[in-house]
Amino acid sequence: MIELSEVRKAFRSTVALDGVGVDIGSGVTGLLGPNGAGKTTLLRIVATALAPDTGRVRILGRDAATRSGRLEIRRRLGYLPQDPGFYLGFTAYDFVDYVAILKEITDPITRRREVRRVLDAVGLSDRMHHRLGTFSGGLRRRVALAQTLLGDPHLLVLDEPTVGLDPALRLRFRETLSGIAVEHVVLISTQLTEDVTALCTAVIVIDRGQLLFTGKPDELTALADDRAWQDDTRHAGAFLSWRTGDGRYRHIGDPPPGARTVPATLEDGYLLLVGGRVQNPAQP
Amino acid sequence: MNRAHPITTACRPQEQAAGAAILRLAMLEAKRLLRHPVLLVGAVWGSWYSLWPWLYREPAQPWSTANYSALSLTWAPLYVTTFVVANLAALREGPPTTAELFRCVPTRYTQRTAALLVAGFAPVALTGLLCVTQLALITRAGGVTIGDPPGSGKITPTPAEVALPALIAAMSFAAGVAVARTVRSRLLGAVGGIVGGGLYFTGYWIWARFPTYLVVPNAVAVRRDIAHPHQTLWDAEVPFLYAPTGGPNADYNPNWYALIRDLDGFGWHLVFLSGVTLLLTGYALRRSGYDPRVSWVLSIGAVLVTAGIVFQLVAHGGPFPWWGDVGAI
To answer: Which helix (H) or strand (E) holds A262?
Structure first.
């Protein structure tokens, strides 16, 4: 449903994406990568906010390089930018209503029902007539999430969607996305590996504009199999070590002989991959 | 959060609904504009100058055409605030706010600008409504006094003269959007509105003395008969109203201006203003993105502006000094 082929994007001398090619199907796909890896650039290209310098982008069967293609994609898109911006003088209802019109939901009765539905989905029913200027960052994030759900979009592109959400709402949001992803495409960028573990059916890792991994979360976790161990002391030979809540040290890297390995997590696999300690066997 | 309300009932955006989206957006913007405190202040302020003095009787006038000349000038606060609210509404969307988010919606930037420009009918209609109220008050007061005794008389403004403030408001609104699409600065918009409004107030007294009178917003249908600039009251041939050259108290002055009502020229001035409004509209749309239909808006605007200027000159009966006083009062 999303096909990127040899996509390159540079901002002056900084190459944000360098020949990225990936196919993304229905379900929730998580996009992982360190800061400055090119995640947001990739999301912006998929959301048609940005055109690649070279390469081909086809989304939902439409060519994003053509004006008519972009229009059709945008008619089926819910997009949450990293920093969505708000009209602080608007109420939550007015703002989402405004976006609903921009998304061509023009029938007043349908629009009213739809706006209330999405605000309800993010738990803002009781505050929908409060001004956004009085909202905290977390509440504004909810409003931003609400507008992405307008019109039951076929494609959801979400940049750090769960940042600022409380645990209960994060769970609810995951549930919502899971429901949507049964038939549609959801692409989320996140720094939270637990979001990927809990939600995603596929995961993409990029770093310095290049694709490092595409596959299932289990496959990313499997990269760290037998490479995570625990000990009472910090191990100088480990790639990364950190102290856990029980006072012991968790290490990833090449375990010394006799080390007590522990089940790997997706975070372990991700850290080893980005650190260059492992390679995805499916990647060249 | 309502956990018993799963998201399964979403509606789909309508296909081919751009026109409907523009209309709905325009209605929403219009409501917001009419509730804007700056515009409301302008409406109250303008009404204070324009309606209040006529509430019971015609106000006393310091010279023979003062009340008539003031008909469009006293709405200046409304013109200024119309400019400012248009500018603010057009500047609402920007890189610090929703530019990124709205780049990915089907309703394009040009269409959003078009919707805002259509919403401009709301403050224009408000101005028109207030002007009709003013007309009703003037009519109840028996009309506007023109001239000085023994040649004074009363006239009632025509619909064309009542339409002038609404047209100026339309032009102000389009200018507010055009400025916002050129310079992204609220400060500049506010300063531009105030300076523009100030020029409007003072410009009448400056530009009426030059041919540029034909290309400024304000206009009056009552003018001096420049064919016979100075004549004695008894020698005047046609006009029905007179004003002494030395002012109403200059009894010693034997010369009088003959006042004529030149509605043709005034009407062409309205055509000129309509053209300017369309030019500003087309410019604001062009700055928002490419749409081939904008060329038509610009072309029609240019034709109306040209026709408005040329026919004001043609319709201005009798010989007129090209580089000098064109006969404004």
So the answer is: none
CA distance A51 to chain B (A): 12
Q: How far apart are CA A7 and CA A214, in angstroms?
A: 16
Q: What is the pLDDT of residues B254-304, one digit of tens each?
A: 566 667 777 888 888 999 999 999 999 999 999 999 888 999 999 999 999
Are A231 and A249 contacting, i.e. CB atoms less than 8 angstroms apart?
Answer: yes
Q: What are the pLDDT digits (tens) for B213-254?
A: 677 777 777 776 655 555 555 554 444 465 655 555 555 555
Are A117 and B25 an interchain contact pair (Cβ–Cβ within 8 Å)? no
Our CA dihedral for A169, A174, A179, A184, rounded to 10 degrees, sits at 130
Q: What is the pTM of this model?
A: 0.86
| Separation of alpha carbons A211 and A23, rounded Å | 12
Give this complex's ipTM: 0.86
Q: What is the DSSP string of B193-212?
A: HHHHHHHHHHHHHHHTTSGG
Task: Among B14, B28, B97, select the one facing A86 at the smallest CB separation.
Answer: B97
B97 CB neighbours in chain A (<8 A) are 85-87
3-state SS, one letter per residue, for A6-37: EEEEEECCEEEEEEEEEEECCEEEEEECCCCC
Q: Are A89 and A111 in contact (CB under 8 A)?
A: no
Domain ranges of chain A: 1-76+154-216+280-284, 83-152, 220-274
Q: Which CATH number is associated with domain A1-76+154-216+280-284?
A: 3.40.50.300
Nearest-CA distance B60 → chain A (Å): 44
B15 to A75: CB separation less than 8 angstroms, yes or no: yes
Hey, are the CB atoms on A77 and B104 less than 8 Å from each other?
yes
- Rg of chain A over CA atoms, in angstroms? 21
DSSP annotation of A255 reads P
Of B93-102, B120-129, B131-140, B272-281, the one with minimum mean pLDDT is B93-102
